[in-house]
Amino acid sequence: MIYCISDIHGCYDEFMELLKKINFNENDTLYVLGDAIDRGPKSIETLQFIMQTSNVHFLIGNHEKMMLDYYDGNDIHENWNTRNGADPTKKQLKKMKKEEVDKILSYLRQTPFFYKVEVDGQNYRLVHAAVDPELSTVDQDPDFMVWAREEFFEKKGSDKFKVIFGHTPTMNWHKKSCQPWEDPVHKDKICIDGGCAYDGYLVALCLNDMKVVEVKGPDKEW
Fold it and tell me: pTM for this one?
């Protein structure tokens, strides 16, 4: 089976519970759509599990991009900060050896911003926040892919593929529900960010049968 999960935000225990719930094994494939880090208490454990598990594929979210910009000296607006939930991750990194931190940074620098996936004849683009349907694959703007919201999901996407994304908690559309949101007009995009770090749920979407499995997040907002 092929699964997608997004916006774990350091909620490692809930992540492990969700993998058990879907009976994730070596025959399955998991795509994590960015924002494994920040807000929650176990960002490094989450990243290290992803790095060490060959059938888990990661892509960059806005929080990983902020972290990389910080370490590469490109965080000119100081976005990786307390307001954006960086403190727990910074605290963990400060306790690590330099070579361990360098290994994580090297992994993230080689991590893509999106994946192309075909399941049962349906083409998907997996991304953290957005894909610009008017641009080719090579011309996509990394900032748009990790930060965009309304300028993406309020417009028609592509007729050639369906976009699976996170970044915007689905409570924005469903109010109290954390179920995935599918564009009701164009049917060309699905959001799976259940707001785990906001007293919501961590959600797994199976692309083979579109079934949804969820685990309750911490009873607090990080």
Answer: 0.97
